[in-house]
Amino acid sequence: MFEYAPAPESRDIVDIRPSYGLFINGEWVEPQGEDRHKTVNPATEEVLAEVAWAGEADVDRAVQAAAKAFPVWSAMPGAERAKYLFRIARLIQERSRELAVLETLDNGKPIRESRDVDLPLVAAHFFYYAGWADKLSYAGFGQDPRPLGVAGQVIPWNFPLLMLAWKIAPALACGNTVVLKPAETTPLTALAFADICRQADLPPGVVNIVTGAGETGAALVNHPGVDKVAFTGSTEVGRLIARGLAGTRKKLTLELGGKAANIVFEDAPLDQAVEGIVNGIFFNQGHVCCAGSRLLVQESVAADLLEALKRRLGTLRLGDPLDKNTDIGAINSAEQLAKIRELSEAGEAEGAERWSPACPIPDRGYWFPPTLFTGVAQSHRIAREEIFGPVLSVLTFRTPAEAVEKANNTPYGLSAGVWTEKGSLMLWMASRLRAGVVWSNTFNRFDPTSPFGGYKESGYGREGGRHGLEAYLAV
Ligand code: NDP
C-alpha cells in the first residue's frame, strides 16, 4: 500500500453553536422542558453541541405552525414553490463544503463520501423535485392532484442530510408542509438546513425541525394534526409506527432495514466485482439500509474472488474521517458499535470464519475494522440479521436458481446486485429477485429520478422519481 501524507479537511469552515433550540414557524425557539442532549463526534468522542429535546408540547407547536402555513403554501402556484426549492438547492451547493464537514463531524463518515456522494445528491434531490412542482398535473396522478397537509417525517443517522432531502423535497414540491425529526445522534445538518430555509426566505412554518429521541418521534407520528407520516429507520420501529397508525386516516410510507444479496457469477469481471463488493458493504461503514451485506459468489470463482477481495481490503484506510484519504470512518455511536460486535461474535460462535486485514484502530472514538466471514450458513444470524456495519457474510452457490433462492431467503427485500456479462442472465435474475432495487454490475448507485423502496419487511412506498410524488399527494 502507498503511504499517503495526511490530507485533513479544515473544520474551520463550520461554525457550530454551543447550543441549539428548535426551529418552529421560521424561528429558533427554546423547548418548554429543560431536557438537552449532547451530540458527539464519533471519531473523537468530543462534544460538538447541545441540542434541545422536544417534548409533546413542542411537537404540538411545530405541527400547529405547519398546519397554519399549509393553506398559503399549498395554494401557491407550483412555479412559485419551485423557486423556493431551486433557491434551497443552490444554497446547498454554495454551502456544500461546510455541510460536508459538518456531516462528517457529527456522523463519522469519511469526508470523501459526504463531499462527493451525500452533498451532491442532496442538492440534486432539491433540483429534481423543484422541477416537478409546476408539473404535478402531468405526473400521472390525475388532473389536479392535491397535497395531503402536514407531513411528519422521522429520519435515521446514516445519511442525515440526504434522508432529509429525500423527505422534504417531494413533500414541499407537492404543496405539503413539514415537521421533521432528525436522529438523536446526528441533528446538526438538519439544524443547518433550518438556517438555509431562512436564507431562502421560505415562508414561516413550511419547514419545522424538532430534535429529540424516540419519544419525540413517537409524539410526532401520533399527533392528530399530522396527515402523512414518512419514516426511515429500523423495521422494529417501523412496525411500532404502523401499528400506531392503523385505522387512522394518515398516509404512511416506511423505508426500513435490508439484508441485500450481492451476487457474483463466474463470468463476471472479477476486479470490477471486487470494487462493487467493497462499495456495497464498506461504503459509509456499512451503515446503509441497502448495503450488499451478503455476498453470494458462484463456487467456481469463489477462491479467486475471495483472494482478490482480501487483497483489496488490505488497502482500505480506516481513520480520521476528515482526512481526504480515509476510506472507512467511525461507527456512528457506542450503541451501534456494541451491536456490530455482538453480531460478529455470534458469527464466530455459530461456526463462521472471521477475517479482517491488519488495521490499526485509533485510541479514541468508535471503530470497527472491515470484516468478512466465510463458511456462513443461511441459518447463521450474520446471514439473517441486519448488522449495519462493515461486516460481509460470504455464501456460495452453483446455479442461478440456487442464487435466487438464497438471495430471496430473507424477511427483507430492499436491494440486490447481480454481476455477470450476460444480459439475459441479468434480466432473468432481476425478474426473480424480491427486491425494490436490483443493480447490475454496479452497487449503491442513487439518483433522484429513480424510485427507491422495499418489499416485505423492508417497508412500503417509494421515495425518489415520479413515484416519490405519490406519497405526498391525495391520489
Ligand atoms: P431507529 O429506527 O430506532 O431510529 C430511526 C429514527 O426513528 C430516529 O430518528 C429515532 O430517534 C426515531 N424513533 C425511535 N423510536 C421511535 C418511535 N417509537 N416512534 C417514532 N420515531 C422513533 O433506528 P436506530 O437509530 O436505533 O438504529 C437501529 C437499527 O436500525 C440499526 O442498527 C439498523 O439496523 C437499523 N437502521 C436502518 C436504517 C435504514 O436506513 N433502513 C437507518 C437506521 C437504522 P432516535 O435517533 O432519537 O432514537
In short:
By secondary structure, the protein is α/β, with parallel strands linked by helices. It is 39% helix and 17% strand.
Give structural attributes.
about 475 residues, alpha/beta, 6-stranded mixed β-sheet, globular, binds NADPH dihydro-nicotinamide-adenine-dinucleotide phosphate
Descriptive account of the structure:
The structure is a single chain. Helices cover 39% and strands 17% of the residues. The protein has 475 residues and is an alpha/beta fold. A seven-stranded mixed beta sheet has the order 14-15-16-13-12-17-18, with helices on both faces. The protein has a six-stranded mixed beta sheet with strand order 9-8-7-10-11-19, with helices on both faces. Strand 15 (371-374), helix 12 and strand 16 (391-397) form a beta-alpha-beta unit. Helix 2 packs antiparallel against helix 4 (111-132) and helix 9 (270-282) crosses helix 10. The N and C termini lie far apart (56 Å).
Percent helix range: 25-40%
Question: Main beta sheet: strand number and arrangement?
Answer: 7 strands, mixed
What is the overall pLDDT average? Answer: 97
Number of helices: 15
* Largest sheet, spatial ordering of strands: 14-15-16-13-12-17-18
| Structure class | alpha/beta
Q: Which molecules are bound in this entry?
A: NADPH dihydro-nicotinamide-adenine-dinucleotide phosphate
Q: Based on CA inertia axes, which overall geometry fits?
A: globular
**How many beta-strand elements?**
20
